[in-house]
């Protein structure tokens, strides 16, 4: 029998404080990643007072595609906590792959989230829909310094074969040499980073059925054109 104390939030005030910190952190992240600045006065009408700050929905207004940005952010968070993991060296619970590649200088944060047709193969999905969407938004992955792909699907497809198809299409899998570097770094032998700058992670969502939701984050510095 489960102890009553184990089933409940035993420190409500700390829970509230942590929740407020999470929301404040997301607010600040939206502000840092915004694509344009929402003016306090629009067409002669007061949108907000600068001393009071913007509301949550006003912070979202600073993106061209706020819903899509939010979905990519949710999937970045989800892949870090996904309980149904398919492997060790994926993006899942390895946020160091992301943190270590964030540029030191100003950069553009590219984002896209798109859902495939039912039972559609990932390679065709990537070539026929994802690439077209990237082109529509004016993104060139040849300018990206690092790419993060989170693929989510339902139970019929969520397996190692699914992960392998995506890794092969994106060339996102770590080599044996890269894996050894990670292990050696983890036990303090050396601090060499993997050379691979394309990372993939996988999440399970039964609502999607046989469809795939692909969310991408990528960092763009205009002078970089390393990805073929």
Question: Can you offer a commentary on this structure?
Answer:
The protein is an alpha+beta fold. It folds into two domains: 1-63, no CATH class; 64-228, 60s Ribosomal Protein L30, Chain: A (2-Layer Sandwich), CATH 3.30.1330. Helices cover 39% and strands 16% of the residues. A four-stranded mixed β-sheet has the order 3-6-4-5, sandwiched between helices. A two-stranded antiparallel ribbon has the order 1-2. The longest helix has 22 residues, at 12-33. The radius of gyration is 20 Å and the shape is globular.
Strand order of the largest sheet: 3-6-4-5
Oligomeric form of this entry? single chain
Largest sheet: 4 strands, mixed
As residue ranges, the low-confidence spans are: 182-187, 224-228
> SSE order, as H and E?
HHEEHHHEHEHHEE
Using only C-alpha atoms, the radius of gyration works out to: 20 Å
- How many alpha or pi helices? 8
In short:
The chain contains eight helices and six strands, in the order ααββαααβαβααββ.
Topology:
Elements: H1 4-7, H2 12-33, E1 41-42, E2 45-46, H3 56-60, H4 66-81, H5 96-99, E3 108-115, H6 122-137, E4 144-153, H7 160-170, H8 176-186, E5 198-204, E6 213-220
Parallel strand pairs: 4-5
Antiparallel strand pairs: 1-2, 3-6, 4-6
Observed structural traits:
228 residues, alpha+beta, 60s Ribosomal Protein L30, Chain: A, 4-stranded mixed beta sheet, two-stranded antiparallel ribbon, globular
């Amino acid at each position: 029998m489960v102890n009553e104390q184990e089933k409940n939030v035993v420190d409500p005030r700390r829970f509230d404080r942590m929740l407020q910190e999470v929301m404040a952190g997301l607010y600040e992240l939206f502000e840092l990643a915004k694509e344009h600045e929402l003016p306090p006065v629009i067409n002669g009408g007061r949108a907000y007072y600068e001393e009071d700050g913007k509301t949550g929905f006003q912070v979202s207004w600073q993106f061209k595609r706020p819903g899509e940005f939010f979905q990519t952010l949710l999937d970045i968070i989800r892949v870090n906590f996904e309980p149904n993991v398919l492997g060790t060296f994926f993006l899942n619970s390895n946020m160091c792959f992301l943190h270590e590649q964030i540029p030191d200088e100003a950069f553009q944060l590219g984002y896209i989230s798109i859902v495939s047709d039912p039972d559609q193969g990932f390679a065709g999905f990537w070539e026929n829909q994802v690439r077209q969407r990237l082109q529509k938004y004016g993104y060139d992955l040849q300018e990206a310094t690092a790419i993060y792909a989170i693929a989510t699907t339902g139970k019929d497809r969520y397996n190692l074969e699914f992960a392998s198809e995506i890794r092969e299409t994106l060339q996102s899998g770590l080599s044996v040499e890269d894996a050894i570097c990670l292990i050696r770094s983890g036990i303090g032998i050396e601090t060499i980073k993997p050379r691979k700058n394309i990372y993939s992670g996988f999440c399970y969502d039964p609502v999607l059925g046989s469809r795939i939701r692909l969310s991408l984050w990528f960092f763009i510095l205009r002078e970089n054109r390393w990805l073929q």
